[in-house]
């Protein structure tokens, strides 16, 4: 009789384990949310944030770490004031090779390799009136100001170059001007 109970128990346990298995359909998942996460749209409203509409915004008046604000405004008065600006880069931190590479990538296409205003786009007459650096009253600060905000047809390079890179290029422009 005991053997009959053991056989019945073995059959019922094996039936319980095999009854949930079906090769045609997926098995049960222990925690389905871990396997199938909820997809959120990046710009949709979400209840996870306090205002319910958008993500966390930085505190008002805060600035990113390592960023130095440029206080001069984007107008003619700011440009004239920038001419008295001195570079925060010391002469021993100036990397002429790197500044030359940056100038070649971002500036030489219009201003030319020598700063004479005869870059490839000017030669092909895509842009006209690109000034020669020697003909302008510029300083390191005014070049940085123009790189930051842009002037006339030249747009801003603040998104392409970091602050330190813009100062490097400004030094390089002054070096081209003196040659």
TrEMBL record:
Origin superkingdom: Bacteria
Coiled-coil segments on the chain, per record: none
Spans through the membrane: none
Iron is among the record's keywords: yes
Keyword Transport: no
Cited Pfam families: Cytochrome_CBB3 (PF13442)
Signal peptide: 1-18
Record key words, sorted: Heme, Iron, Metal-binding, Signal
Domain Cytochrome c stretches: 94-177
PANTHER family, per database record: LIPOPROTEIN-RELATED, QUINOL:CYTOCHROME C OXIDOREDUCTASE MEMBRANE PROTEIN
Protein name in UniProt: Cytochrome c
């Amino acid at each position: 009789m005991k053997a009959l109970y053991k056989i019945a128990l073995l059959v019922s346990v094996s039936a319980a384990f095999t009854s949930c298995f079906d090769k045609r359909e997926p098995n049960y998942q222990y925690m389905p949310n871990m396997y199938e996460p909820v997809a959120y749209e990046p710009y949709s409203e979400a209840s996870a944030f306090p205002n319910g509409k958008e993500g966390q915004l930085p505190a008002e008046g805060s600035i990113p770490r390592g960023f130095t604000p440029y206080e001069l405004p984007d107008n003619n008065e700011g440009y004239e004031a920038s001419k008295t600006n001195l570079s925060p880069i010391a002469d021993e931190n100036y990397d002429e090779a790197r500044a030359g590479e940056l100038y070649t990538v971002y500036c030489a296409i219009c201003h030319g390799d020598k700063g004479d205003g005869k870059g490839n786009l000017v030669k092909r007459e895509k842009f006209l009136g690109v000034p020669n650096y020697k003909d302008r009253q510029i300083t390191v600060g005014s070049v940085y100001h123009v790189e930051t905000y842009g002037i006339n047809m030249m747009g801003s390079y603040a998104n392409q170059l970091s602050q330190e890179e813009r100062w490097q290029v400004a030094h390089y422009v002054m070096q081209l001007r003196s040659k």
